[in-house]
Amino acid sequence: MLPLERERFLDALRAVLGVAHVLHQPQDLAPYLTDWRKRYTGQALAVVLPGETAQVAAVVQLCALHGVGVVPQGGNTGLVGGATPDDRGEQIVLSTRRLNRIRSIDPAAGVLVAEAGCVLADVQQAADAQGMLFPLSLAAEGSCTIGGNLSTNAGGTAVLRYGNARDLCLGLEVVTAQGEVLDALNLLRKNNTGYSLRDLYVGAEGTLGIITAAALKLFPRPTAQITALAAVQDVAAAIALLGRAQSRLGCSLTGFELMSAHSLQLVQHHFPQMSLPFDLPSAWCVLLESSEVEGESQGRARLEALLEAAMEDGQIVTATVAQSLAQSRALWHLRESIPLAQAQEGLNIKHDIGVPLSRMVAFVESTAELVTQALPGARLVVFGHLGDGNLHYNVQAPQGADAARFLADHQTLCNRIVHDAAVACGGTFSAEHGVGQLKRDELQRYGNPVAVAQMRAIKRALDPRGLMNPGKLLPGEPPH
């Protein structure tokens, strides 16, 4: 874009949003240009902060007029570079942080309408104030936003009971690539009137349009949530315990997280104020949570009976049940601090794989052998949502090695080993983090060719000029 055209474009943005909400100085742009993992840093013509859907539509219309790509950004907590512009400085970042209103809550219908920039924790609190539950929960919930959660079809720790973000969404408001407002804020549980446009935009990572608001499902708030930590000898024992828990607890089982002993040791090393309730007697731990509607005493008795029976049968080595909300939060904090401990330890090779539970033991055992043979001294930091078959199978550099050099030299080989193994087991290379720019080549390698072709056709139909989050998700898409 020529300098004169650039200034005209910026002036037009200022006329729509006001001078204060069009950022273009380097120091103002900087916080929006690097992803959370610090893997990608781009450049941008400007960062814009619309405060209402009409302003989003007006901005997109201006971008369409001038041929400028739009990179939507919520809390900037993504792990695949999906909200970072490229390095040409010819795109804008559209931050949704000012689209942060709870528009309505209907406890009787179990529906909350939130704008895309609402922080997930604020939505949880708004539901709680009405005696309801919005169950989407993940480590970044204090900073991630609803728009980003939906754009990546976020998973988190309660998928086992409530499903992914898509399952928690009834309808959407979206600004299309042409700057039109699609009002599909369906508030009904049943509405069978043609194509599910919601499902096109959820998980599309902003490549088809910009989500500006969503109608979200609420659930009755549990009367008690009971948390336990159990040590198990191996993954096979963890899966056996999962089956027992599902049989005994039914739909009240809301969380079942697997953590390697090494991942917890990493937390203790970098955050020594956090302590485990027992010495690690085995290679793995499981974090279980039961959400009860019958009362805490009944739920606690059921969970304790489950653990006692599992211990008698040798499925677990030792276990503890949280006796208070503070203890429960402390156990969850151990789990949620694993990614932070990894970041403190240094750059690492992250994987977000999904594998059928029937193949999980074979995957973990064979992949560990392959990785350690190919990368002697590499440390496996494995944890995740075993209940739904999703593991974060991360690989840390050998102790004392240059982490950045390890990442640069070995990421491609490590990805091939881990992703080949997951796909060979009938799994996926991306269970909940999305594709972004990090995994576009993986979609080309592992994606079903017919499915990828259909995705390209949808992209061309809805965004023929390729202005919506260009260079993300679809392999080989030219930047705009």
Automatic annotation (TrEMBL):
GO terms for biological process: respiratory electron transport chain. SUPFAM superfamilies: FAD-binding/transporter-associated domain-like, FAD-linked oxidases, C-terminal domain. Pfam families: FAD-oxidase_C, FAD_binding_4. It comes from the Bacteria. Keywords: FAD, Flavoprotein. Gene3D superfamilies: 3.30.465.10, 3.30.70.2190, 3.30.70.2740, Uridine Diphospho-n-acetylenolpyruvylglucosamine Reductase, domain 2, Vanillyl-alcohol Oxidase, Chain A, domain 4. Residues 40-221 form the FAD-binding PCMH-type domain. The keyword Flavoprotein applies. InterPro entries: FAD-bd_oxidored_4_C (IPR004113), FAD-bd_PCMH (IPR016166), FAD-bd_PCMH-like_sf (IPR036318), FAD-bd_PCMH_sub1 (IPR016167), FAD-bd_PCMH_sub2 (IPR016169), FAD-linked_Oxase-like_C (IPR016164), FAD-oxidored/transferase_4 (IPR051264), Oxid_FAD_bind_N (IPR006094). One of its GO terms (molecular function) is catalytic activity. Its cofactor is FAD. PANTHER family: BLL6224 PROTEIN, D-2-HYDROXYGLUTARATE DEHYDROGENASE, MITOCHONDRIAL. Belongs to the FAD-binding oxidoreductase/transferase type 4 family. This is FAD/FMN-containing dehydrogenase. It comes from Thiomonas bhubaneswarensis.
